[in-house]
Specification:
single chain, Flagellar biosynthetic protein FliR, 249 residues, mainly alpha, 2 strands
Amino acid sequence: MDAALVVVPVALAALRVTVFLVVAPPFNHGAIPGTVKAMLGVGLALAMASTLTVPVDLTATAFIGMAVSEAVIGGGLGVLVALVFSAVQTAGRLVDMLGGFELGQAFDPMTMTHSGPFGRFFQLIAVVLLFASDGYQLVVGGLARSFQALPLGAVLDLGSLAENLAGGLTQLFLAAIQVAGPLIAVLFLADVGLGLLTRVAPALNAFALGFPLKILITLSLGAITVAALPGVVSWLSDEAFRGIGEVVR
């Protein structure tokens, strides 16, 4: 019985943590093997074992119900964090769309999505910055905090989760526009200039030069957008931690 009182809480906590790691960045990246995620989930659960408790007379049916609840909590919090950090990849996709790189879309097996060069580049930079700046510690800290507000067997408030997901979706587009905003403005002005040039001198066929010109502008000014990513990733880490806190409090 004593062994069960130790193993059962750790197993339930490991389920919540592992599902979270599978869904939430930066751990959801395909370059991290599933075995490593499972081992990390068990390791984090063991680290919190002293604070975990379950009813002594836990039945098999109750255990299954608690396991489902833990998976839902881990998945819900993971989706919330993933939505926050999707702003970086969305900014890259905006650059791809307006800069003419969208034609080079390819399937990325690491993220299981189709994206252009800048979308994949920004997403990789975000993952690197999360590890380099210790932003992942805020994400894991928010998950550990969830065990205090939502102990084993608790039910996640789906209404609060839906409200935060809706707010996170708005924040996603706002952050993406803020990241790619300067480059988007320059590309828009380039289109306007080409349009005016075509209107003044139709024989020049200015739009034939539009694609190479926009690609040159995107590659030249893309460094400005990349230089802003460290601050953006740090801010998104704080937002992810805050979002988890609002859901589990």
